[in-house]
Amino acid sequence: MMRKLLNPARSIATLTGRLASRAVIATSIVLPFIAQPAQAQQGRVAVIRDAEIETLLKDYTSPILQAAGLSRRGIEVVLVNDESFNAFVAGRRIFVNTGAIMAAETPNEIIGVLAHETGHLAGGHQQRLREQMERARTMAIVGGLLGIGAMAAGSVAGSRSGTSAGSALVTAAPGVAMRGLLSYRRSEEMNADQAAAKYLRATQQSTKGMLKTFERFSSNLALAGVQVDPYQISHPLPRERIAMLETLAHESPYFDKADPPALMQRHQLARAKIAAFAGGQAAVARAVGRDRSSLAYRYGDAIATDLSGNSRSALAKMDELLKSAPNNGYFHEFRGEILLKLRRPEDAANAFARSMKLAKDPDGLIRSRYAFALLSTGKAENAKKSLDSFRAAIQSDPDNLNAYLHLSQAYALSGDVGNADLAMAEGHFRAGSMRDAQVFAARALQRLPKGTPGARRASDILAVAK
Q1: Which end of the chain has the lower number of beta carbons within 10 A, N or C?
Q2: Where is the Peptidase M48 domain (predicted)?
Q3: Which residues contact 339 (CB under 8 A, 6 or more apart)?
Q4: Residue 269: CB partners within 8 Å, gap ≥ 6?
């Protein structure tokens, strides 16, 4: 189930500072005239965790990363709660907005975007961008100093023209530096487009989706009557980019290759889920069509029904849906979420257990929900049973911050207060909440036996947090 992780009211559910700091120098694919995403510039990115959509994006990205020689570098794909069409890279993460998935009518369109972002990663554009930014900053400073020197010389000589020339240098220096930086960014984007076409061809996938995406931008700009100075944008002008992409795209022997039907259905299910969370039944119909018999429409409708507060009706709809697709693990997952709302945690645990067997869950998100359902029964024996699942989920996904909170609760219900405090310390530490991490680490040290792994970890957290 889709869950936001960025919530200032919950320190345990806050993204690590690493995401924010790395996002500041993000290389973005769109919007065409913005150097970095606005959210990234503000240092905060609203991230959503969802096993179904994350797995789909990983399946889209894995062959592209392999073609780029990046498959062993632990590249993550992160889902951002933003309705605009955008994707960007920061550190070793590719961020994809929910709006990009919603706008992409086929898997190939979003795969083209991911291939472009992979081009930025493989080209080392982030590191070079840092260097270019430093160079631009230096140029601005040096240009300003030269201008000040010229003004001083003109003033001593009593020359008005010399003073004016110096003033012009001071004014022009930042603009010249910025133009150099933006020119570099435009060449980066061209290189990423070329790399993307190469990766798509290597993986025998169509370049049509990537071309369609940029044609859409070009059309939108034309309709808006946008007039821009080519020196003031970070991306190539659409007409330049489209011309190059058309050539690259049509050179591919796989240009007309269609997405597999099974992948297309998974894409539509993901879009239906996002639409349901974003705008209810009406948004689902707009996203996947009004064919009420389609799997995607019925899925989105069931989710929207649950979100509207009618969980019993939503459960009935999911049960009917599972008759059509009994082996869809994500349908069982959402059924488990509904059962939790209906205060049937044991039935929810069974649904999550079924989901784990059927769905890909490399990050243990579903496993953590299974453990939470066990914990929600309120039974001490189930709390103890949940401990292994929480620990396994955290081991595969250390940034699953809610899992630390629930692990702490499970330890507390099992009577192990020391490890409950340690779990809270670890969660706050990974969330970047160092003051709270110190408090809980200190408590854990008082309760855990000296020399044990838990006590050593608490000591480490306390030392680093300080």
Answers
A1: C
A2: 58-247
A3: 315, 345, 347, 348, 351, 373
A4: 52, 295, 296, 299, 330
The backbone region for 204, taken as left when phi is positive above 0, alpha when psi lies in -120 to 50, beta otherwise, is left
Question: With bands split at pLDDT 50, 70 and 90, how would you rate the model's confidence at 388?
Answer: very high
Q: What whole-number distance in Å separates Cα of residue 239 and Cα of residue 223?
A: 14
- Measured CA distances, 100 to 86, 244, 274, 404 (Å): 6, 22, 11, 31
Asked if the structure places residue 395 within a domain, the reply is: no
pTM (two decimals): 0.77
Q: What is the pLDDT of residue 39?
A: 40
Please name the residue that has the structure tokens 């499970």. 410
CA 248 to chain centroid, in Å, comes to: 28
DSSP state of 259: P
Q: pLDDT (tens digit, 9 = 90+) per residue, 135-174?
A: 545 544 454 455 445 445 544 445 555 545 445 434 444 4
Per the rule left: phi > 0, alpha: psi between -120 and 50, beta: everything else, 392 is alpha
Query: CA–CA distance from 130 to each of 76, 185, 186, 189, 385 (Å)?
Result: 21, 11, 15, 16, 48
SS3 446: helix
CA 399-121-84 angle, to 5 degrees, is 70
In this structure, is residue 415 part of a structural domain? no
Residue 96 phi, psi (nearest 5): -125, 125
Residues 6+ apart with CB under 8 A from 466: 434, 438
Domain boundaries, position 191 = 1-142+175-259
pLDDT of 360: 82
Residue 26 lies in a domain: yes
CA 247 to chain centre: 31
Among 81-85, 275-279, 303-307, which is the least confidently predicted range? 81-85
Total domains present in the chain: 1
Nearest to 88 by CA among 77, 80, 96: 96
